[in-house]
Amino acid sequence: LSNWSGTHQVVTQSMFSPATLEELEALVAWASRSRKKLRPIGSNMSPNGIAMNETGMLSTALLDKVLSVDVDAKTITVQAGTRISTILDELQRHGLTLANFGSVREQQIAGWTQTSAHGTGARIPTVDELIVGMKLVTPGLGTLELKPSGPTAKLFRLARVGLGALGVVAEVTLACVPTFRLHERTYVTNVQDLRANHARMLQTHRHVRYMWVPYTDTVVVVASNIAKEGAVAQPALPESERVKPLLDLLRELDPEGA
Predict the structure, then answer these.
(1) What predicted TM-score, i.e. pTM, was given to this entire model?
(2) What letter would DSSP give residue 2?
């Protein structure tokens, strides 16, 4: 197995893929009795290879069902292996979405939250803070229903970003928000100007991300804010126009290769 970026590889002795909560519970109980190490793995996108283990690994890929959507409470409950794309598609049918998510939507929800993934935006919480309830299968205490208040509150706060070390996440309930549109602006700047304006950018825009072009002083900035009511998306530019600035930059950097 290799992680998404190809920086870590492993050959594991055993890979388990439970398809039901009961199978997951039985597997964790067996591993505890047999003193077998299991590392839960989602889409394997972490650059540090945290989910990899030579002895045994547990994939949540088959635990991929949307269990319920509560439109009034603005929550969705899903199994651990449900992909972000599936969650967003289901929420869209109900006029809801998530407050924050990254540009890649193929992560599984358990791995996404257990590693405290994030999109962009200094004033927007990381994705683990969207969790309002979770079900955790543990080797010592069995299956636990964790909530932000009551007797399980302390463990709930720890388990939201448990890195797979406190148990295997079986289900997650997420807080949602009404669907919204973003107005995105993409432009090019240089490193000096970006450093001078960085703090202001973070406070001005809901989302902002930078993409430095290696071996140049060029930085691509993508800034997004909630669009005004009634705003209509503009048609996308033809591909030839979209890639022209990049092609011009490449020709400037390498005239002979261009």
Answers:
(1) 0.85
(2) B
Residue 175, strand partner residues:
75
Cα distances from 28 to residues 13, 48, 64, in angstroms, run 16, 24, 18
Which of 64-73, 203-212, 218-227, 245-254 ranks highest by mean pLDDT?
64-73
H helix runs in 35-183, sequence order? 84-92, 109-114, 153-159
**How far does CA 39 lie from the centroid of its chain?**
19
Residue 248 to residues 15, 190, 193, 238, 253: CA-CA distances in angstroms?
48, 16, 21, 16, 9
How is the beta sheet containing 131-138 ordered, strand by strand? 66-70, 75-79, 168-175, 131-138, 142-146
At residue 35 the predicted structure's pLDDT band, cuts being 50, 70 and 90, is very high
Q: Which two tokens stand for residue 148?
A: 């932000």
- Between strands 131-138 and 218-226, the pairing is unpaired
Do the bridges between strand 15-16 and strand 57-59 make them parallel or antiparallel, or are there none, so unpaired? Answer: parallel
Neighbour-count burial of 162, counting CB atoms closer than 10 A to its CB (0-12 exposed, 13-18 middle, 19+ buried): buried
CA atoms within 13 A on the CB side of 117: 23
* Residue 215 CB coordination number (10 Å): 8
* Least confident stretch, 126-140, 141-155, 194-208, 236-250: 236-250
Detail the DSSP E strand segments found in the chain.
Answer: 15-16, 39-41, 57-59, 66-70, 75-79, 96-97, 131-138, 142-146, 168-175, 177-178, 182-190, 207-212, 218-226
In angstroms, the CA 121 to CA 137 distance is 32
